[in-house]
Specification:
There is one protein chain. The protein is 81% helix and 0% strand. With 129 residues, the protein is mainly alpha-helical. It has 2 domains: 33 residues, no CATH class; 62 residues, no CATH class. Helix 4 packs antiparallel against helix 5.
């Protein structure tokens, strides 16, 4: 019997081929967004704050960099990381309070996190441009 069990186990587990449910995807995105907010997010924010406050010339240089379309796109991604992380964090706090733990509620909560994060990012993008 032990030999039979051993033969049924996969020899190579490809995580990219496994279909994850939406709550798992939102949870993984929450972790990834947290890591990206920490690094390179915090060092870039501190560098920008230093340039912002150093002198009028460094302020103008920072403003010129931030006016570039690529900088705006990177800033928009950073805003999405932040907004998704906050929304998913609120969802995780509710889950810790045993609110939305059932599978249908968890799926609705995950969809809500994605929709609210994207809508707020689009609103920020409109204000940014």
């Amino acid at each position: 019997m032990e030999m039979k069990l051993h033969q049924q186990r996969p020899k190579h587990l490809n995580l990219l081929k496994i279909h994850q449910p939406l709550p798992a995807i939102v949870s993984v995105l929450h972790r990834i967004s947290g890591v990206l907010l920490f690094f390179p997010g915090i060092p870039l924010l501190l560098c920008g704050m230093q340039q912002l406050l150093a002198s009028a010339q460094s302020f103008d240089a920072l403003l010129q960099v931030l006016q570039h379309p690529i900088s705006k796109i990177l800033l928009l991604f950073s805003i999405w990381f932040l907004l998704h992380h906050v929304c998913a964090g609120i969802r995780h706090l509710l889950l810790d309070l045993h609110i939305g733990v059932a599978l249908p509620q968890a799926r609705i909560g995950s969809k809500l996190v994605l929709v609210v994060g994207i809508l707020l990012t689009v609103l920020a993008g409109v204000l940014l441009w």
